[in-house]
Please model this.
Amino acid sequence: MENLPTSLSSGLRCGSAEVKGRVEHKADLALTSPLTSSKCVYYHYHVVEKRDSGKNKTLKSESRRVPFYCRDAEGVTEIQPPSNYSQWPTRVTEKEEGKLIHTEEILCEEEEVYVLGTAVLDKEKGDHFVLSKGDDPSFPFILSSSEEQASGCLRVGGVLSIFITQVAIIFIGLLAFGYVGSFSSSDFLLSAFLSPLFLSVVMSFF
Model:
């Protein structure tokens, strides 16, 4: 991100980090995608049956992922996405066979990726850093095809968080007035005023 310099694999240190490079599978950990038989580190494959009623039925849906390397000019960084991570930058292939639609989303070797996460010591060997989610719930893990796309994801997440907080502040204000037995129109107005006041405070830090 803007305030976080991109690290080369040889300069990775414990804590927040970002790396850029090409996908490279670890030894004996490459996957083979079901539809195109491509070597990859992630795939999501599903089969849908088209029906005359217009309500298609999913016959099969499966996903697999493995840890992989991000190779840059100085070496490789091991990437360990969280098990529940779903925003993979993928190439999509679709094939129709009669009423069946096969769709495959894959992240292949040699694809350019940008990874934002937390560098931690490998839990098994303890002799190198890996880039993963980390223990800080407030710091994200993002795997993207570009830094610009990752920045967009963070902006959307930030705006959504502020919106939810604003709604919560208004709700809490209304609860407070209800608790003291006051529910006049001025109370509603005051509760609504708390939201832009909160926003102005947040913006003062930027």
